Structures
1.
Amino acid sequence: MLETIWFALWGVLWAVYFMLDGFDLGLGTLRPFLARNQDESRVVLNAMGPFWDGNEVWLLTAGGVTFAAFPGTYAVMFSSLYTPLMLLLFALILRGISFEFRGKEDAAWWRKTWDACMWIGSFLPALLLGVAFANIFAGIPIDGEGVFHGNLFTLLNPYGLLGGVLFVLLFTVHGALWLAIKSEGQLRDRAGAAAKILWGPLLIIAVTFLAMTRYTTRLWQNVLAKPVLLVLPLLAVAGLVLTRVFAGKGSWWKAWFASSATIVGATLFGVAGLYPALLPSSLAPAFSKTAFNSASTPLTLKIMLGVALVMVPVVIVYQAWVYRRFSDPVTAEELAGDHAY
Amino acid sequence: MNVLTLSRLQFAVATYFHFLFVPLTLGLSIVVAILETMYVRSGDVDYKRAAQFWGKLFLINFAIGIVTGITLEFQFGTNWSRYSAFVGDIFGALLAIEATVAFFLESTFVAVWFFGWNKLSPKAHAVTIWLVAIASNVSAFWILVANAWMQHPVGFVVRNGRAELTDFFAIITQRFALLEFVHTVGSAYILSGFFVVGISAWHLLRKHEVAFFKKSFRLGIAFALVFSLFEILQGHMNAELLGAAQPTKLAAMESHWETGRAVPLNLIQWPDTANERNSVQTLPVPKLLSLLATYDPNAEVKGLRDFPKQDRPPVLPSFLSFRIMVGLGFVFVALTAWAWFKRDSIEHSPVFLKVLVWSIPLPYIAIQTGWTLAEVGRQPWIVYGLMRTSDAVSPLAVSQVAVSALAFILVYGLLGIADFYLLFKYARKGPAPVAA
């Protein structure tokens, strides 16, 4: 029971991370295409400014919970995905530093360097997270000792790559909608248009991915075995449709929430379909790392659950407060002041 | 080089680098919070300018500390998977708690502080920097509890091929953890004090914003003096603790080979590891080592020769890092006491001001050597007495770790250069002019 609760929480942490940092990663990817001058470029940065750091901690927590609740999975998953994880970490380092350093020096080469770093630091994590999760859904070649029999190219299979493209599209639509909320005038128009344009390819890739999921993974069988779980893929599909509907009306907040529902629904569908495995082995089902064969002791799971039940709601409350407080569009006045990126 | 050596190299690079930035975060956040509180209470705009000036340096420093912390947490899984599987039940939980109770708070409110100057009331704004300061210090507590468990594991039983938790309270309240925590934050406050004092001294030398920087100087020197004194007295408790908890580390850091009673402490000595003795050994202070290690001048202190060779840490690095750390600790007391007595007329002592500017790196060196002692002195164990470092590493290919280790050195090197460049630039620039 404790293992199942933690398995669900593990999925929720990833879903929240994708929902929150997803718009940062998407916006960082889109910025060179949306911003036509310095001021617009800075509006994009400051649209993420008060949030990205707090958003990234959800990743750290998802990683930390994997370590704490399922150390057996943490050990095998993180060492098996060594190269993509290292790339992800370096990319996120570059992204974080770019925010802080970019405006601290006037030279054009300085700014361009950090702009390039931020693009890589946004695009690459979106892609890698998609590739990683698609491979986790499908299973990776790990043996009974938890040794990975493959390399980076093992992961770059068609289904993995499609997962990467799916994440990039999900996050860019999500990011464009966020920018439409946080900007005004031409930039907002361009952001809204980008969300609508990218929605088409997203739909195609999402349908293809779901179809391939049917043949490449066991997610559908597992979810169909417990029909109540069908609400998760339905949430994702409804979110996707509503994203386009609300974007068409220019209701950016509603469209962003619909897009959030897509991301959360899709992630939870994947995680629910994995249950009880966190990391299936493609070599033999017995080698899979599951919520039961890789969990911590009941004592640790109980203590951690106590901490989570108290602290996670507190985190949600203060982060929601920050989102409310900084929900207005970025103004020229703020950019002119000393307290903006 | 094999996977073990490369992984150790990579982890050393990542932790040394991370901890170049963390101590200043721990202390400077408190300095900024105090300055902003003084502004809110007095309305003196100089304090607001001071909070913003030191706050800018705080943020430049903070950025690197944060992003390099994430790689550390993930490296346990990537490079030390056997360790992770063995200790996850305890060590993983401590890291996860750190993220939930502290890291979220710190990361969320540091942004609110930076972006919120005109969006929050002055009082609410001052609260946000206090939240950042408290959260970063709470964060340090959990991380150091985790490290202390590697140094001195308690509250567990080895079962099912791993260390399983039996007593959570024992882990978070063990003496080793509490002493490690106060010693580490104490050193961070010394470093932050020297940072503020040194930069203020640089401006005072140039007669730039004299009134402004004298205020910062006074706050910085009070910080540095109090914690320099604290650190010496408290540090002694750590030596006594090591005598009981980590006898091999104590013997290595003192380069003490022969078990004996009423052991003297040699002021000058040099270890000769190959021959298991000291090649130089002079100026003994009678019975001092016994006294420091046990509070009893006649007590027995075990020497390195009494431990099997495969259980001994590298002697020279442990010995040297300990001596450098302690030596610098005494230098800090002398410097800060002198500066404290001269604080009212400090701007008239240019030579001393120069000394203070050049003293900024010293606490950095003391802290890095302190961690060298803590971690190298723990070898060959990753968890003292329980798991060897050589048994902890992931089953990886040499090429993978070679490439990533090289990437760490290159990327961190460049980031470090850029960060120190910006710190220099904005430290020299001084505070924003008073608004008209």
2.
Amino acid sequence: MQVTVELNGVLCRLAGVQSLTVDLKDFATVADAMAAVEERIPNAADRLEVTAIAIGDSLVHRNTSLMGDEVLVLIPPVSGG
Amino acid sequence: MNRLTDQTLDIESLIAQTDDPDCGALVVFGGAVRLDDGVKAIDYTAYAPLAEKALAEIEQETLQRFDIRHCRLVHRTGLLKLGELSVVVVVRGGHRGPTFEAARWAIDTLKQRVPVWKEEYYLDGRSTFVEGQHIQEKSEN
């Protein structure tokens, strides 16, 4: 299955794109998707370790199972205000 | 009611929206782009669905935690020049003590929970993302 991953903040700059599509095996989890993202942007590995993940307007845990039609939104450390 | 906007923040409008004769205290906090180590502008980006939700939750939680009557939070996105406001907090309450405390708590919590990122642009042409903090989830207490 394929999952779309939207990037934010410094992750966009490191990847050079605003979103990615990653191929995953069936019954994959958010953690599997993050591992696939790290393979695509290895220069962001340290940032991905401290990145939260959202689906819609909610944060999700890395052990969350994926169906394949989700859009994962990566939330690197925030700096608003 | 948008709490995240790419338009200039309007403090007067927020003050008018929260006008209340029962409130003897009004605290307004504004965060602005400042001249710091050669910064000439800051580009603010956000993940809007979660940012809007988090800002609304912080407003409600501030109202629950403190003896106040109104709390409004708005955050700007886009490229802001020196002196432009990036965030505004407006709190009204009966008395100054809890009103000051509520405004402080609201801006501190906003910085922890709202998915906004800033990229500083410098006079020498460089730019860099500000190191942030891991986003915090809404507390249960």
